[in-house]
Amino acid sequence: MISLLSTVRRHQLTTFFSLALGLTWLGFIPFWLSNGGSIPWFTFGPMAAGFIVASLSGGWTSVKAILASMVKWRVHPTWYLVAFGLPFATQLTSIMINPLFGAAAPAWANIPAFSEMVPIIALYAIFSGPLGEEPGWRGFATSRLLASHSALAGSLILGVIWAVWHFPLGLVGDLSLYGTINVLLAAVVFTWLYQNTGSVLLAFIMHLTHQNSVRFLGQVFTGGDYVQQQWLGVGIWAVIAVIIVAHYGTESFVRRPKMRFAVAGTV
């Protein structure tokens, strides 16, 4: 037991990523092989893995840190605007420019009524990723990755594993190349958000907003027009990621205050 705890402490990220993938895939792959088409997708794998490894490696102190970040709401209002607004703005922009590339005009009537969307969004918030993923990816993994990697490198490492985590969905046709690339780009944006807020709650909001803006607003197009619009969205996320790196640098994604030096002989 002592040897196991020591191994987990030395290899926290390896253990976490292995558990996150294993817990999620454990039910999916055998069930798919025997039933085909059904998706018992355990979206709580990353969260469960984060709490398990945190408790084994750091005890209650580490677990409490994740829990605290999940309810941290006192951040500058600008970051709420970013978490809510950036995914919507990205999706709406891609919709508006899609006809410039030959797509049909958006069929806004295809979007369900707000009253119909709210209960669905609430269910998706719990069972479709945001709640089950963010305490693991951001609450546990991000800070540990950035302890030994730059923000850009850590984001890309996490983005690759985050994308790999989704791979079994390809077995049922629920995974696309543009979606996979979007995950890599989103990892950069989510790291930037988390680094500047320390809040899993804000990451949860951005995840939920991004997921459902694609799910519902994307209904204004069908077929090839929809695919083209999603690729345009990926392009916009790429621009956002490049702007973050260009503005903040690769190291931390946090703007440090300028140093002020006193001049000799002045008061």
Description:
The structure is a single chain. This protein has 267 residues and is mostly helical. The protein has a domain at 73-248. Helices cover 72% and strands 0% of the residues. It contains 10 helices and no strands. It has helices spanning 2-10, 12-35, 45-70, 77-97, 114-127, 130-146, 151-165, 177-197, 200-217, 223-248. Helix 4 packs across helix 10 (223-248) and helix 5 packs across helix 9. The longest helix has 26 residues, at 45-70. Residues 259-267 have low confidence and may be disordered. GO terms for molecular function: metallopeptidase activity.
Sequence-ordered SSE layout with sheet pairings:
Layout: H1 2-10, H2 12-35, H3 45-70, H4 77-97, H5 114-127, H6 130-146, H7 151-165, H8 177-197, H9 200-217, H10 223-248
